Amino acid sequence: MEPVDGPICLNRLTLYSKLWRHFDRGLYNFFKTYIYIPICMPTFSIQRKIFGILVSYSFVLLWHGLQYANLIWITLNILALFMEYGAKGFYAIKGIQEWREKHISDIAFRRILACLHVIPFVTGLYSNFYFLGGYVVGSIFYTRIFCEETLELRFPAILLLILAYFYAQVCIELERRQNLSEIKTDSKNISKKVN
């Protein structure tokens, strides 16, 4: 029996699908193997996938306790995940991809992606305020930062959003470099096997 790898540094994640996949790999593998895939089989339809996600997160909620702050935490995590999957599904449409490739350069598209990464990232931050601090602390952050600053477009909120954009750019670049490194490692391993 081989243990799963430890968690990756959360300071380089903006997407919650990656957080859940890489933070607690054992829990992720358990949910994927024993809850999500059996629920989604045999068709893997969108309805089954949504139900599989809801059941998986329900187990997380039960594990951490049926408290209002945990319910908000789980709900915001699910919302961030659905936003991410919805955007990926939208971009998977062949006509959308062709239009993007024709009208938007790769550099401009990466900038758009970084802006879009801010949305689930910020949603995840608010969810963690509730999870780590409880309902009162989460509500203070939500009221003070989101309601009083962001919705009214005051300077601190604009500064935080700009910083979140740059953070998303750094995260995208780190992931790109990691993927390139894995490709190089895989190709070296393949060439060693061939020789």
From TrEMBL:
Write down the membrane topology: Multi-pass membrane protein
Q: What are the subcellular locations of this protein? A: Membrane
Read off the Pfam families from this record: MBOAT
Q: Which UniProt keywords apply?
A: Membrane, Transmembrane, Transmembrane helix
**Organism in which the protein naturally occurs:** Onchocerca ochengi (Filarial nematode worm)
Q: Which family does it belong to?
A: Belongs to the membrane-bound acyltransferase family. HHAT subfamily.
- Bilayer-spanning residue ranges: 50-66, 72-91, 112-133, 153-172
Q: Which GO terms describe its cellular component?
A: endoplasmic reticulum; membrane
Identify the InterPro entries for this entry: MB_O-acyltransferase, MBOAT_fam
Q: Name one GO molecular function term.
A: palmitoyltransferase activity
State what protein this is by name.
Acyltransferase
